[in-house]
Design a protein that fits this description.
Length: about 50
């Protein structure tokens, strides 16, 4: 498979930057929710 060249226009760079920021925010939210999900799982299993 040939590597695809990325477009260097300002619109594509802006879209890529927004995508990366969105991905970073989604990951941060996921990490923040992990303790809540773990506590819920353990309490439902009767371990707490």
């Amino acid at each position: 498979m040939e590597p695809v060249e990325k477009c260097k226009c300002p619109e594509c760079e802006k879209r890529q930057r927004e995508h990366e920021e969105s991905e970073e925010l989604n990951f941060a939210v996921l990490i923040a929710l992990m303790p809540i999900m773990a506590i819920t799982l353990f309490s439902n299993m009767g371990l707490f």
